[in-house]
Every structure is written in structure tokens, then in C-alpha cells.
Amino acid sequence: MVNNQKIRVGVLGSTGSVGQKFIELLSNHPWFEIKELAASEKSAGKKYGDAVNWILPTPLPSHIKNITVKNCEPNLNCQIVFSGLDSNIAGEIETTFAKKDYVVVSNSKNHRMDEDVPLLIPEINDNHLELIKHQAYGRGMIVTNPNCTTIGLAIALKPLLDNFGLESVNIITMQALSGAGYPGVSSLDIVDNIIPFISGEEEKIEAEPLKILGQLTSGQVQNAKIKISAQCNRVAVVDGHLECVQVDLKEKTTSDEIIKAWKKFNGEPQRLKLPSAPTNPIHYFEEENFPQPRIHRNIDKGMAVSIGRLRPDTLFDFKFVILSHNTNRGAAGGAILCAELMKAKGYF
Amino acid sequence: MVNNQKIRVGVLGSTGSVGQKFIELLSNHPWFEIKELAASEKSAGKKYGDAVNWILPTPLPSHIKNITVKNCEPNLNCQIVFSGLDSNIAGEIETTFAKKDYVVVSNSKNHRMDEDVPLLIPEINDNHLELIKHQAYGRGMIVTNPNCTTIGLAIALKPLLDNFGLESVNIITMQALSGAGYPGVSSLDIVDNIIPFISGEEEKIEAEPLKILGQLTSGQVQNAKIKISAQCNRVAVVDGHLECVQVDLKEKTTSDEIIKAWKKFNGEPQRLKLPSAPTNPIHYFEEENFPQPRIHRNIDKGMAVSIGRLRPDTLFDFKFVILSHNTNRGAAGGAILCAELMKAKGYF
Amino acid sequence: MVNNQKIRVGVLGSTGSVGQKFIELLSNHPWFEIKELAASEKSAGKKYGDAVNWILPTPLPSHIKNITVKNCEPNLNCQIVFSGLDSNIAGEIETTFAKKDYVVVSNSKNHRMDEDVPLLIPEINDNHLELIKHQAYGRGMIVTNPNCTTIGLAIALKPLLDNFGLESVNIITMQALSGAGYPGVSSLDIVDNIIPFISGEEEKIEAEPLKILGQLTSGQVQNAKIKISAQCNRVAVVDGHLECVQVDLKEKTTSDEIIKAWKKFNGEPQRLKLPSAPTNPIHYFEEENFPQPRIHRNIDKGMAVSIGRLRPDTLFDFKFVILSHNTNRGAAGGAILCAELMKAKGYF
Amino acid sequence: MVNNQKIRVGVLGSTGSVGQKFIELLSNHPWFEIKELAASEKSAGKKYGDAVNWILPTPLPSHIKNITVKNCEPNLNCQIVFSGLDSNIAGEIETTFAKKDYVVVSNSKNHRMDEDVPLLIPEINDNHLELIKHQAYGRGMIVTNPNCTTIGLAIALKPLLDNFGLESVNIITMQALSGAGYPGVSSLDIVDNIIPFISGEEEKIEAEPLKILGQLTSGQVQNAKIKISAQCNRVAVVDGHLECVQVDLKEKTTSDEIIKAWKKFNGEPQRLKLPSAPTNPIHYFEEENFPQPRIHRNIDKGMAVSIGRLRPDTLFDFKFVILSHNTNRGAAGGAILCAELMKAKGYF
Questions:
Q1: Radius of gyration (Cα) for chain A, nearest Å?
Q2: Low-confidence ranges of chain D (pLDDT < 50)
Q3: Which of chain A's residues have a Cβ under 8 Å away from the Cβ of C190?
Q4: What are phi and psi of C303, to 5 degrees?
Q5: In CATH terms, is domain A3-147+332-344 a member of 3.40.50.10380?
Q6: How many Å apart are CA B174 and CA A36, to the nearest integer?
Q7: Does the distance separating the beta carbons of A197 and B288 come in below 8 Å?
Q8: Which of A31, C61, C276, D237 has the maximum number of C-beta atoms within 10 A of its C-beta?
Q9: D70 has which bridge partners?
Q10: Which stretches within chain D are classed as H helix?
Q11: What angle, rounded to 10 degrees, do the helices at B255-264 and B148-164 form?
Q12: A136 touching B, CB under 8 A?
């Protein structure tokens, strides 16, 4: 694809931590090209390099530095906008953009539970994209990426649901600092410490997988009938959410069968060889002390889910440990994969 | 009590991390006086100050520095020995001391499950001390202190068991580094990381509470009939184990009733005003993000259990968060409290 | 002293991190009693327990919780105000209080370099209190506590200056997170990282010791003639600033002589047995890897300076390592010691 | 180059942390191919995958897993051996290999100061390779890579020496955990802490740059006449040594001139486009709070040195901050670059 044929994209909330991750991942994207960066009033009008407090190890590309930041208004010269907006303003802005014919792919929570908005994990529910037909945005549309913790969990659950049926899921998380944005968690709250609470997080994890794993019937998603309980903790890890999970299955099975189901799991992103797709959505580790955040978070471009320690449980059928990268797979990377799927499926 | 009337005590495994904590806590003890320090071959014969790599913030008292370390053989001039021995040698050595008429109070796992050995948490099962009568050690005896994670858990569970009945308990831990001893966990394994595995720990947590919470009938402990599932993680916290717990109760109740039960809970150590007893064994916090290890681990001399976030659960009846200090309440401090109880009850 | 004879004190900026430390240290003070808490507009009128986000491990005393926070205006019912105000507002407010006859003891930088304001370290320059006579505040007065890093440094330097003369001082710091206040440093900036820059800090360290170590002549402080160079780094340590120091002395001497000078050093706080005074202002460690922040910061109530690793240097005469607690000795504790000295000397 | 034409290499001490880094960096090397892995008695005979506790985030390549580990004896089927041996055994083993015609490129300290052994930083002293002619090892030879801290320092100093002359250098380090190997530093010694001491490190930093920056005259290295003072600290950073440096220059100059000298600095690795060479050996940052370990350590494959905060000093002429990756540039990566230079220059 010649460079000037790339699809023009913009980033809303481009100076925030999710916005920066969007820029990092889109900078050398084979299909998409960053043409517009939008942010709040106080950044608008400045060169991006002057407006941003760039916190990522990857150097800020120089052609990005010189882009002039605009307001989050629908006069951007691009086809897709990736939204990393704060949830207290994201809802309305994203609606405005969709109404003006933009393809909105959002990492914010606001529209996730809208009846006509796909809550999309491309490996799991690509067929939910049909919901877009029911949207009232003309040529515009809104697609959302789930909560960072939900994504790793839902990918691990999907093969269990498909192969053995799923009754209930218990999850306790140890979540990374980057999940709270920047400046986010004060260092005085987390060095030599744990915070056993993340505002609003448990509710999202208990609700979102039901929609993602739901069936699309007559243009509506019927939520999966699974009981989920979540407890969330913030720990002193930079990137990578670790989750201790227990499940009750509908059918009896063995650890070997489960591992086999995980290993062979893949979906449309793998079949379509989408640029951001992991080769294998799930990596299973036999080592008794794996996965670990610092060691495994970047596997397969940070887009795969690592699982380990599967074993029978005394209260549930099985227990195991999940790790997934919360800003790659769990935020910007996941949203870009959504856009790639939409492009490949001809949605724009 | 005049100084020379204090009870003479010794510490086995005195140079290790638990041994050091014993020394710290016994240095100004009103009833006990350190007279003997024993350790492995390579320390024996040296002044303690030369043998030890003292890792505690409390300065090593100078009268302790000059004690000559002896071998772990039953020729120590003391009545009680506190054992912080490594479990690969503790079993036999402790038996040898008991046979030679020493009172052995051990933090090691070896004798915990012996039929005639109390697995003692003084607030919970002081009556289990009667098991000592069945020991075949003459005037000697062995009493054990439970696993560091078990202690916080069992104290939180006891009021639930007594007031509402207990069906099942699910626990996921985030455990401090000091629980692994010294040098213990490599810094390269834990900075910016979590290890989702602690060897042998889950098994102990699933088994020990059943004995501790069991009924003493005809000189035997009948294990409590509770199903427990445990998952353990090591995190970058110096001291203080945090535990996410879920419970199914036999009777319906409310959060208010449970909090009331926790707040009024106390036991023999409080009634007898034992020197190491916390004023309140349980502190309940209303703040939604408490308890936290660095903030609350030292409450009530590090001997109390902090609880917070009690709320109804979707899979179990209730869920909540526990914090307890793993080397004070959970190791040396707990063992010393056992010895205080035994003294107050006339066991020696 | 009967309770109702205690001196009534207030805290300005009482909800901030330094303000909280003042409250912690003053809660059971034998001479002072907290009667007033003042803070910004948005806290004024609330109960302190509702206004503050209490971040200290020591529980907030209940009688403090119920004090109603006032504005920082000079209508407080107390004799002394301790100021933990932010430096962008501290200067004017403190002047206003002094003019209204309050004794102002400030931890803020604003008045530190005023010609007529003592920059006080009670062990070093108690005679600088005479500057107060030259203040134009009537019965009111302002005394300041130096920068947190300066304090440890100046205490270590004073015996060198007095015994051997001091030419030049080179200092590289590794400073704790609590020095930046709360929320202060973002966790994403410091986990697995170092920030080699602290705004304005190097300038303070290069200037303040010259005034502190200066001679009072005819009512004026003549700055000490020492050349100082400072480089400052922020590290992932909760409390305790570590400083690598090199010095050129005027006279030749030996390590033994220097250690002797440090060990015998003390001042008015020790002679007067002030309540917050450390028994020994300086603790010297022979261990090659001491002092360390987590191990030694709380020595002598966190009010002593720990020194170690003294050895000859190839570029300077000697080099060594200093540790001092930045919020006890370095902020609130140091300021309270100043007030104790002033009381003992009859300044109020 | 066809695969079977690659140069066969072996790694001594292959299971250690430096050995693992060698394997990581050599796994896809365009010129070298790992054919032999050697380690201690207790690993010899095992498959490498079974013998090693692999601690790196990069997955262990499967073709490496199946290599059978051999003893460190000179019967390996390869031309070059990279040595990551522990210094208490490295000296003799390396000599043995050199005598048996192997090219030994070592990261250990043992032979660094041998008169006839190059202490090589390819950008600085490639001409020191001539020393090899004076070695008495027949076709074999020994070349050494400097200490991890020395490398970053020497690269920063070289342009200063060449352009302005260098009188003296003062350096205080904050060194990463990976520099101590595995398990290395206990987590209990470093979480919420700093250790102001690293055994033997200051001596190496004060000595090694003198040889590296020395002139080769009549087959001998004349040490550079520079006075160096070093103080070393261990901090809770995984990778990347940060160094606060002060220098006295022979000629007066400006910050701008120095930055210009750093930016244009390069050497043989850049001219020869060696595979492991950084594009620019030195990156200078204008931001007042850069460089930082977590952000900048991986710049240019972890093979470049990052510098920032250059400013005039009160005691020296200038001060600045250096960061370099201690296991890439500072250990295995640096040694591989040495071998690449030797190959390109025809030494084997």
C-alpha cells in the first residue's frame, strides 16, 4: 500500500496516557496514518511535542511532534478517530463525531453498554459488528473496546464457554499502575504497598464479559448467563494485569482438555492476519510460577494473553492465573485491532 | 517481677529472619529473658553480633550481641525454646528438645499437624492446649504457631464460625517478602513484578484452619467441616500479607451483624491482658480502600488483624479484605503470645 | 505540667503532608497542644477528619478528627503556628500571622533567607535566635526550618567545620518520595526508575548551609565561606534522604578524628533535654554497607543523622554517606524542635 | 552469509545472568552462531532448557533449549568463546581456552588489567587490539570488556578528553539490580531502600577508564593521567546504571561545545556498521529531568549512552548525568561488539 493511500486517522485525548499509546502503536502502522491529534482546550493550538508530557520509552516520532493539536471537534481531516478520552467527557464527544460520519473506535467506557454498540474483542465476537447497522449515525459509527481487565479474562473464558460451558467465574486481580493513567496513582500510595480497591472496576468486570460472550440474535446481544464475581487490587507493577481466576464449567473435563482448547483457540484476527493480531491469542505456560508481569507482558507484541497454573480447585472446578498487557491488548492495541477487523470486513 | 525472676528462654535458628524477629520482640519482654541463642554449625561458637547479618530496623541490643551462639542441642540453660528453625531440620531437633524437658514453641511447620500438638492461636483455641497432656515428652512439650497467612485468616473467620456458621472460604493472597525469609526472594524476581506461586503455601492454608477451628473432643481435635480454597501470590511489599476472602455462611446475616461480631471478638489473651496481646484482635475499617499493608500492618503492635471492604458477593455470601503482619502476628509475635498464654495458664 | 497549662498551637496547611506530620508529632507533645487547624478555603468549615486524606500509618487521633478546620487567617486561638503551607502562598500568610503577634515556626522556604529570620537547626546555630530582636513583628516572630536535605548535611558538616575547617562540599542526593508531598511523584515516574532532577532543590542545598553555618556578628549572619555543589535525584524510597558527600577540610586529619568529632557532637537540644531532641544527633556506623534508608531512618525518633563509609578520597580529602529522615528531622520534627528550643530559651 | 558459514561460538558460564544475555543477543546474530554452551559441573550433561533458570523476558529459543551443556573445558566445537564466568573461576579457564587457540572475549574482570590484554570499548580504543600481538597464546587470544559502569562513563568522557582535555572525574552511581547477577540482591535489602555500597566496584571505576583512555605506545598502554573518584549505590531499578558525573577539563569551553562534541562522537563500530553498534554512541537530552533508567535504557538496542543535565558546576567545571544499559552495553552486548570489531578487523 503506498503511503498516501493509508487511511487517515485521528486520536482524541491524544496527550493522555492512552492517547500516547495510540500514537506509539499507530506511528508505523501499515494501514493507518496519524493525521490529526486532538485534546483539551489547554493543548489545542500547540505543537504536539510541546503539549504532551511524553511518558513512554519509545521516542516520540519527530513527524508527530510537529502536528498541531486541535480541539475535540468534528472538523478533523480523517476517517477514523481513536478515542482515549476521559470518561467524564468521552460520551458526548464520541456521539458528535459519529453523527458527523466519523468511524469512532473508543477505549472509553461510556458507550460500551449501548444496545447498538459492539463491545468488541475481535477474536471473540466479530459478528457483533452487525450491531452497527442499527446505529443511527449515518455513515458514522461507534465501536468500543472493553475494560483492560475484562479483555484478558474474556479471551481466557471464550474457549471454556465454547468447549465446556461456563457457569460461574471468580476473579481477583492485581492491576498495573499504567491502568490508572498519568499521573494516576501516587508513588506514596503504592511503594511497599497494595491498594485493595479500584473505583468502578469490579462492576465493569462483572458486567462486560456477559455482553462480549453473549449471542447476537435478531440484531440484539443476549447476554451470556454466567455469574461473575470480581475483586480488584492495585499493585506496584508498571504494566500487565495479573488475575487469579476460578471457574465452574457445565461439563466435566480435564486440565489437559482445557489447555488443548486454549492452545488451539484463535479467531478472525488470526485468520485474516490482521497487523496487530497476536500469532496465538493464548499462551499457556507449564512452569509452576508463570505467568509473571515483567517477564510475559510483552509476548506476541503485548497482544496475547498468558495463562498458567491450571489446576483443579476445592470450591470451583478449576483455578488458573491470567496475565495480559493492560495498555497494549487492554487499551490502545485492542482498539486498533478492532479497527483493523472493521477495515478487513469492509465496514469502512 | 525482678529481672532474675524472669523465665529463661532460648531461640533456635537465631540467626535466621524469624530468629531475629524473636530476639527483637523478646529483648524487652516483661516475663521472658533471652539466655541462649542457638544456630547452625557455622555460627556456633561465635558472638551473636558476629554471626548474624542483622536485617531489622530495630538496633540489635548490645547485651544480645555478646551472647555466644551454641549448637541446636538440648544443653541450653533455659526453660523455653522458641524455634525459628528451617523446616528441613526443625522436626527432629524440636522433638529432641521436648524429650529433654524443654518447652518448645515453634514457628516451623513440622509438628503442626501432629495429633497431640496444639496448632495454637491464643484468641481462638486456647483449650487445645489440653492436647499437651497427651504428649509423650515428660515435662517437655511442643506447641506450634500456624502459617503466617493462616493466622490472619483464622482470626477473621472465628467470629463468623461462632455467630453464623461457616460453609466455605475462598482466599487469594498477596504476600510480603519477609514471609520468604532472608535472602529469600531475589530482587530481580519481584521489582515491577508478581510471582503467582509460593511453594507449599496453598496446601497449608487449606488445611491448617480446619485444625485450629476444630472442636476438642475426648482429647482429640475434630477438624472443622469447612471447604477452603487458596491461591497465593508474592508481591513487592516488605511486611504484611493482604488477603481477598469470600465466605459462604450457614445462616443468613447482614454486613452490620458481621462487623459487630468482628468488633466484639476477643479471647483469652485480652481477658488475661497478656503482654503481647493486641487490645483488639480485629480492627474493621470503613474506608473503601483500606486496609493497606504499609499503613496498617503495625496496628496494635503488629498483633491485630485489619479487615475492610466487607460487602455482599455474587458467588459467595460475602467478600472482604484482610491484612495481618506476617512476622509479628504471623510468626515470632504469634509464637510468643502462645508462650504467654501457656505461662498464664500454668503450663510451665 | 498540667494539661491545661500546655501552650496552645495551631497548624497552617494542616491537611497537606507536612501538616499531617505536624499533627502526628504534636498529638502527644508534653509542652504543646493542638488547638487550631487551618487550611485552604475548600477545607475550612469541615471537621478535620472529613477534610483530610490522612496518609500516615499512625492513626489520626479522634480528638483531632473533630476539630473544625479554619481559614489561614490570624484569628486562631493559639500562641504558636506551625506552618506547612505551600511555598506559593506561605510567605504572605506567615508575615500576616507574625504581625498579629503569633509565633510562626515555618517549614516553608519563603522567609528562610530573610536577613532577620533565623534559619535554625537547634544543635547548630541556636544563637541565631537573636535575629528575632531585629524583626519588626512586635510580639510576633518568624523562625524557619531548613530544607529537608540541608538539615542532614549541615548537622554532619558542623563538627567538621568546628574541628578541622571546611573548604568545599560536594553532595549527590537520593531523595525519598515523601519529600515531594502528596500526591507528589507519580508512581509511573518512579517504579523501576530514578528521576535525576528535583526542581529548585540543588539551589537550596548550595545556599542554605552557608547561612546556617554562618557567624552571627553585630546582629547579622555572615555566611560561611564554603563552596558547595549539589546534584539531586528522586528514588523509590518512602522516607529518608541518602546523601553521598565529599569534603575538603582546612586542616589535615584522620578518619578516626572525624568519627570522634561526630560521635561527641551535640548541642542545646541535648543539653536542655528538649522533648524532640535525639539522644545523639549523629550516629556513625562501621558497617561498610550502612546507613540504609529503610533500616536507619527511624533511629532516635527519626531525629538523628546516620553517617557511614567515611574514607579518604582521591579528589577531596574525605567522602562519606549521610542518611536523615526527611519528614521527621527534615520537616515537621525539625520545626517542632525549633519551637521547643525557643520555649526553653524564653522566646515566648 | 549462508547460515552454515556463520562463525561458531560458545558461551562459558551460559546458565548465569550474563550467560543468558549472551544467548539472547547471539540467538539471531548475523555473523555468529551459538554452537556450544558450557557451565559448571552441575549443569554439564543436561539439556540447556533443563539446566537454566531462564530469567529474561525474551523467550528462550527452542534450538538453544536442546543444546547439551558441556563443562568449561577447551574441547568445544567453536572458534570464539564468550565468557560470562564468575570471577572466582574465570581467570584460569579463560587462559586455558586461549592457549588452546580459542578467541576468548570475556566480561569477567580477571584479565582486564593484564598488560597484553585489550580492555576494549570499540568506539574508543580499537587500536588497543594490537596488544593481542604480544599475547603468548598462539592463535588464541583474550580480549576483555570493561565493568558495566565504566563503559558508560568512558564513552561519555572520550569526546571530552579528545576535545578539551580531562583533569579529573567525580562519579556517583545508582546501579541497577541486574548488575549483581541472579539471585543477586535480596528483595528485602532493596524494596523501599538503597544500599550505598557495591563490593569492589569503586576500585574498578577508578582504575579501568585510565587504561581504556590510555595511549598505545610501543606496544604498551600508557594509562591516561586523570584523577577519578567513584561512589557506588545499589537501587531498586531492574536495568540501567545512572551516574552523576563532574569533570574538570584542561581547556575552557562551553556547554554547547561539549554537547556538540558528544553528538558528533562515533568510532569504528559506526564506520564499519557493526551489527551491534548503536547508530549514535551518545544521545544527549535537553529535558531537565532526563535521562531516566526505565525510559531511556533501551535506546539504540540498549547499546547507546544517554546523557543529560549538562551544566556548569561550582566545584568542577561541569556536571551531568549518564545512563547506560548495564547488561546490554555494559556486559554481553559490549562483549559481542568487541568480537564484531575483531572480526571486521581480521583478527580471526
A1: 19
A2: 1-3
A3: 187, 191
A4: -105, -5
A5: no
A6: 43
A7: yes
A8: D237
A9: D38
A10: 17-26, 48-51, 62-65, 87-99, 148-164, 201-212, 255-264, 268-271, 293-296, 299-302, 333-344
A11: 120
A12: no
Q: What is the pLDDT of residues A61-108, one digit of tens each?
A: 889 999 999 999 999 999 999 999 999 999 999 999 999 999 999 999
Percent composition of chain D: helix, strand, coil (DSSP 3-state, to 5): 35, 25, 40
| Confidence bin at C1 (pLDDT 50/70/90) | very low
d(CA A174, CA A194): 9
D190 interfacial to chain C (CB closer than 8 Å): no
Q: CB atoms < 10 A from the CB of B149, how many?
A: 28
CA distance B190 to B176: 11
Residue in this structure with the C-alpha cell 490529526, named with its chain if needed? A36
Intervals of chain B under pLDDT 70: 1-4
Buried b / exposed e along B158-190 (16+ C-beta atoms within 10 A): bbbbebbebebbbbbbbbbbbbbbbbbbbbbbb
CB A11 within 8 A of CB A82: yes
Cα dihedral B305, B308, B313, B318 sign: positive
Q: Which three cell numbers stand for residue B333?
A: 509475635
CA D336 to centroid of chain Cα atoms: 9
Superfamily of domain covering C148-325: Dihydrodipicolinate Reductase; domain 2 (3.30.360.10)
Residue with cell 544521545: D283
Q: Compute CA D344 distance to the chain's CA centroid, rounded to the nearest angstrom.
A: 19
DSSP string, A211-233: HHTSEEETTEEE----EEEEEEE
List the chains bordering chain D where 3 or more Cβ pairs fall under 8 Å: A, B, C
Provide the Cα torsion C326, C328, C330, C332; round to 10°. Answer: 130
Read off φ and ψ for residue D339, nearest 5 degrees. -65, -40
* A265 vs B108: CA distance, rounded Å: 45
Cis peptide upstream of residue B183 (ω within 30 degrees of 0) = yes
pLDDT attached to residue A5:
86
Partners of B126 in the β-ladder: none
Q: Please indicate if any CB of chain D lies within 8 Å of the CB of B238.
A: yes
Q: Can you tell me the distance from the alpha carbon of D151 to that of D160, in angstroms, rounded to the nearest whole number?
A: 15
Burial of C108-144, coded b for 16+ CB within 10 Å and e otherwise, reads: bbbbbeeebbbbbbbbbbbebbebbeebebeebbbbb
Q: Beta-carbon neighbour count of residue A250 at 10 Å?
A: 12
- From chain C, pick out residues whose CB is under 8 angstroms from the CB of D195: 289, 292
What is the DSSP annotation of B131-195? GGGG-SSTT-EEEEPPPHHHHHHHHHHHHHHHHH-EEEEEEEEEE-GGGG-SS-SBGGGTTT--B
State whether C319 and D229 contact (CB < 8 Å). yes
Which tens digit of pLDDT belongs to each residue from D32-76?
Answer: 999 999 999 999 999 999 999 999 998 898 899 999 999 999 999
Q: How far apart, in whole angstroms, are the C-alpha atoms of residue C124 and residue C329? A: 14
- Any idea where the domains of chain C sit in the sequence? 3-147+332-344, 148-325
Distance (Å) of CA D189 to CA B54, B189, C175, C292, D221:
11, 13, 17, 9, 40
Closest approach of C23 to chain A, Cα-based (Å): 19
A125: confidence class by pLDDT, cuts 50, 70, 90: very high
D199, D288, D290, D314: best to mutate for the C interface, most C CBs within 10 A: D314
In this predicted structure, the answer to whether residue A2 has a pLDDT above a threshold of 50 is: no
Q: Which of these, D205, D233, D208, D169, lies nearest to C316 by C-alpha position?
A: D169
Instruction: Give just the sign of the alpha carbon dihedral A247, A252, A255, A261.
Output: negative
H or E segment to which residue B215 belongs: strand B215-217
